[in-house]
Amino acid sequence: MNRLTNNTLIAAVWTLAMLSAPAMAADTPPYKVADGNKVDAQTLSGWKTWRSMACERCHGAAQEGMVGPSLVNSLRVLSKEEFKTAVLKGRIEKGMPNFDTSKMVTENIDNLYAYLKGRSDGAIAPGRLQEMGK
């Protein structure tokens, strides 16, 4: 194989790999769940953050909406970055306060996303959760 053909082939393989990587990563859920209510430690931490911040006051105990929108529906369309922006910066015009000054929320934003994404995906049941293996 000549050098030009070899370099073209390498470039094509690299491009294909780079284009496929985000799609493969997107298919891997950010949570682990068994039996609907047993989750990994990080997702459990997200659930505990949800409970501690009393998010159910606006979004409902099952995240299906009340005064605030259904997060079960919202996380079907929001990207992780859009979710983080909405939580941390708020949507003041819609009544959503910002939580970027809450240490618990800022330290657990990825875990909170994992929990709510699991609810949105239908993998995590509403209600009390427990850690896998305990």
TrEMBL record:
Pfam families: Cytochrome_CBB3 (PF13442). The lineage of its organism: Bacteria, Pseudomonadati, Pseudomonadota, Betaproteobacteria, Burkholderiales. Residues 41-120 form the Cytochrome c domain. PROSITE patterns: CYTC. Residues 1-25 form the signal peptide. It comes from the Bacteria. This is C-type cytochrome. It comes from Massilia jejuensis. Keywords: Heme, Iron, Metal-binding, Signal.
